[in-house]
Amino acid sequence: MSGTMEATWPRADGRASRHEGKRGDGQDGNGNEAATPRIRIATDGPYLVSGGATLDEAQIVSVEGHHEYRRVRTFDVRETYALCRCGNTTTPPFCDGSHKTHRFDGAEAASRAPYRDRADVYPGAGAYLFDDNRCAYARFCHREDGEAWTLTEESSDPRLKREAVRASMDCPAGRLTHVDTQDARVYEPALAPGITLLQDVDEKVSGPLFVHGRIALEAADGTEYERRNRYALCRCGVSRNKPFCDAMHVNVGFAASLGL
Ligand code: SF4
Ligand code: FES
Fold first, then answer.
1. What is the whole-number distance in angstroms between the Cα of residue 206 and the centre of ligand 2?
2. So where are the chain's domains?
3. pTM of the predicted model, to two decimals?
4. Is the peptide bond before 92 cis (omega within 30 degrees of 0)?
């Protein structure tokens, strides 16, 4: 059994707004069938995005004792476009062919086992926390009242349970998810299909591509990864768990322009 919670997306002016996206009826507004966004990984090359997935950029900012997204720009993109995966492009975030001159090795090392099989389970009175350890070091799991794991232990308290669920739902990597102990509801944010470039202001580094809204991901060998609502794709080229981010962008000080 699964369910969703409505997520809000902070606008550049700081006010919360519903995350705007494609129509939910599969139509493009002119009565035409809307294409479905998907990402195909090119062998030792870029992410090939099709279906008109939106592309924007957000900073991860500290607000009191937690982190929030602050959208800073939206890109005008075509139906299809190629995003750099090697970290060497001179036209970020788009591919300029640098992967060839840099002889980029984009071999995909990530496990194909389903999330539920890979995840550890942390029980709590109000909710169970699933954790697959696929971390992008975005730090949304740290809240004023504790971290997602300790908040889960204390989830008999409704306020702390809400904090725990907030912490897991904000995680861009999809590493953390909560399941309600009472009705087995899976807490997932309702996010429109799109890609968000993350910029980590505190660490002064550029982070991964935050892919949201259940966008299909096709490996270079043509097989499809498990379809997930949230995941973080490496764009620095250094992850040891390609195509997913493993926080190496912090270690290597990856900075893809953009005023950092
Ligand atoms: S990516 Fe998820 S698990 Fe990792 S620090 Fe951020 S919120 Fe926490
Ligand atoms: S972008 Fe995070 S490891 Fe490459």
1. 8
2. 1-8+35-260
3. 0.88
4. no
